[in-house]
Amino acid sequence: MFIKTMSESGVRLHFLSLILLCCVSPSIFFTLNLDNSRYVACGPHQTQALTEFMNEFDSSQCNLTDPYNGVWCDNSTSAVTKLRLKACLSGTLKPNSSLFRLHHLRYLVLRDNNFTSSSLPLELGNLNRLEILFLPNNRFVGQVPSSLNSLNLLSYLELSQNEFTGSFPLVRNLTKLSFLNLKYNHFSGTLNPNSNSLFELRHLRYLDLSYNNFSSSLPSEFGNLNRLEVLDLSSNDFFGKVPPTISNLTLLTELWLDQNRLTGSFPVVQNLTMLSFIYMNDNQFSGTIPSSLLTMPSLSILHLRRNDFTGSIESPNSSTPSRLEEMYLGHNHFEGKIIEPISNLINLKILDLSSLNTSYPIDASLFSSLKDLLLLDLSGNSISPASLGSKSGIPKNLKTLWLNDCGINKFPDILRILEKLENIDISGNVIRGKVPEWLWKLPRLNTVFLTSNSFTGFEGPVEVLVNSSIVNLFMEQNSFEGEIPILPFSINVFSASDNRFTGRIPLSICNYRDLTLLRLSYNNLTGPIPQCLSNLTSVNLRKNNLEGSIPDTFYISSSLRSLDFGHNRLTGKLPRSLQNCSSLEFLVVDHNKFKDKFPFWLKALPNLKVLILSSNELYGSISPPDQGPLGFPELHIFEISDNKFTGSLPPRYFVNWKAASLTMNEYAGLYMVYTKTTSEGLSYVILEGIDLQYKGLSIKQGRVLSSFATIDFSGNRIEGHIPESIGLLKALIALNLSNNAFTGRIPLSLSNLSKLESLDLSSNQLSGTIPNGIGSLSFLAYINVSHNQLKGEIPQGTQITGQAKSSFEGNAGLCGLPLQETCFGSNASPTQQRGEEDKKEEHVLNWKAVVIGYGPGLLLGIAIAQFIASYKPEWLAKIIGPNKRRNC
Ligand SMILES: *[C@@H]1O[C@H](CO)[C@@H](O)[C@H](O)[C@H]1NC(C)=O
Ligand SMILES: *[C@@H]1O[C@H](CO)[C@@H](O)[C@H](O)[C@H]1NC(C)=O
Ligand SMILES: *[C@@H]1O[C@H](CO)[C@@H](O)[C@H](O)[C@H]1NC(C)=O
Ligand SMILES: *[C@@H]1O[C@H](CO)[C@@H](O)[C@H](O)[C@H]1NC(C)=O
Ligand SMILES: *[C@@H]1O[C@H](CO)[C@@H](O)[C@H](O)[C@H]1NC(C)=O
Ligand SMILES: *[C@@H]1O[C@H](CO)[C@@H](O)[C@H](O)[C@H]1NC(C)=O
Ligand SMILES: *[C@@H]1O[C@H](CO)[C@@H](O)[C@H](O)[C@H]1NC(C)=O
To answer: Distance from the CA of 509 to the CA of which of 265, 653, 678, 810 falls in 20 to 30 A?
Structure first.
């Protein structure tokens, strides 16, 4: 039986071991040796081709001792039959590559290599003896060549995690194919059976098209694929109803339809007796949930979150006990009874009933029969207060109870008797007063979320927490007062932002060996920063009244990923030992009184993504000593505004920034600083937020941008030209160079920044004309070039014409809308005049300028900094990407 897995080795074990043992003759294994090409058992021709192939790439990363890599040759014919190279090659795979001379290959595995921007050449078709083609995660782009169709011995095809585009590949002749994985690419188009050969693959046992852009209804021909064991269509744009022919797939064990736009009532799957996982979450399925599902013989996971299911659930009519272990029904619209039937599902371990939208309060004591229940999520429901009382019949074995946003106004006494409770979330309720002392005596308590209530303190003595077993404590957005509490030695995460804590940060912080995340931002703390923060992963002390300098004690810190000391009264220099924090991604020290030169020495940090130094007293040149590129290859947010920086930007300043390329799955203004997984595989993600204050930026909280970069150099004394290399930063969405002394022309390359939403070049000494291409930047919601020495016509485009006049004022020579000075009379051409007439209409179409205008910059800061998510499997999958939960 197939189990879904990304790993080639896993699959080989389950499925291919037979093929490998029989077909590859008692082969001789060679570690690739690049220096002196010795593949003696392989024929000389083959050896040469292989060496040439390796030499086409930078293969210096090849770990020659890695037993994964290797080449196998057939003893009798001495031809290369099997080649396997992992995370080893970097360069372009060319059509004339010697790879395509290895005609005898049956087994080709190239995974995790860096074939940036290579497409798969047509010559792939030369390798027509291939039985196994395994190419995941190689950065391939473009369409899969039609020559794939000539590999008619192929039984196994894995192309996942590349950047392939185009429609479903031509596979008509691949009649032996039993495994096909296209996951995580950009395939698009429909699955129309008339133009598509998918449904002729009658031997297919495993089909994964998830995380692509297919947009299609599901043809009834899916019923042809009746050998399928795993079908994964999740995270595409599939719409319409699931065809009834799905009931033909009687061997199916896993059905993944989640994160699409599927509609209609529950598909008829009851006779698919092998089914053990059903994932239909995040669709628009409606109607009731058939009770026969609950007693399907193999079904152990039923995932139906975020649909439009209504009505009630009938009690299952069967003597066969339910095998269901995990059931997710959250975020639907149940009106009728659903609790009583669920109380019969006695094998349940995980039950998600969040946000059911029932018209009545949920009675938590009805779950008393679920003796094995480990996790109960009742968040977002109103819960009958009595059922949270200490006499309630809630299952006593619960390890995890989520009760956030339930409108609870009294600390739930029921917790007192849950001796096995490890994790409790009561955030987002309206509980006042003090946290009861007994809570800390629960023997297995691990993680507590008290966030967003109105707690003012802890009941009991000062050291009430000290003997508790608690490991993670979240208590942001309350009204806790006084000094920071003394924590137990076991503490791992302490997050207490946005309260009213006063006094100093206790030195006892330094005694907590396992502390990895400390957030005390938005309080009224005073005094110095303790010396011992270098062992942490993330520390946020933003917006307090801390004084003194940052202790220079980060010598051996390889764990620190995120540090935010912004908005304090810190002085002195940036600690040089920070350059030893090789994992640092996020360094924020804005709005302090640091006096220092630009920290070129941070260039050594390979992962730095966010550097915010704004509003300090930093000085000196920002041009690198060697006049070359700035370095900082990973930088995405770079803000140094409002300092006293001088110097100019050399031509190659922006070369080599990763922001030049677009990467997927990053969150706007949010950085994941911490993830934690509990024993049952439940985990939560902690995100750190950034204030992105650029006019015109349309970032919404948590919106996924494919990737983005922002630069703010405003309010310094930087001079010289704006380098053309700025045009390389394809991911740039906001650029603020205002209030400096830049001279020369506006670089033409700005027109290449097609994602740009906000551009401020005002108050410099720029001359020449505004490049025409800027007029066609379709996302540009804000532009300001006022107070320069620009001349000529303002480029006319929908985004520009709607801008305020003040964005162009103070330039003696500019003309055209939105300024009153027309460009007529001089040498305006007839087309330009016609353009003038069209402008009224364009003005109406200028939705973005009208809606967004040039309102205040979007403040993403603290609201998001407090954004803590308890684990919701599909949510996590969205944020982290590939981490979909599965049982294997
Ligand atoms: C392969 O083609 C490239 C051009 O794409 C060329 O530079 C190179 O010399 C060719 N290599 C061989 C071995 O023919
Ligand atoms: C269902 O599967 C059978 C083989 O078991 C096949 O002959 C038939 O065409 C399939 N029916 C549909 C509607 O796909
Ligand atoms: C329960 O099942 C039996 C036979 O399996 C059937 O006769 C009966 O009508 C069913 N009852 C309900 C309520 O579906
Ligand atoms: C970095 O750490 C090493 C010890 O591992 C230390 O010798 C060195 O001084 C540190 N560098 C800085 C700038 O603190
Ligand atoms: C650019 O920075 C200045 C402050 O230095 C600020 O006043 C202005 O609003 C910023 N421009 C944009 C577009 O956010
Ligand atoms: C814009 O980018 C293209 C390629 O991406 C390049 O050829 C062109 O020179 C760039 N234009 C400018 C003005 O930099
Ligand atoms: C453009 O910048 C100037 C100077 O900084 C400022 O006075 C003006 O208000 C800005 N215009 C808009 C629309 O923000």
So the answer is: 678
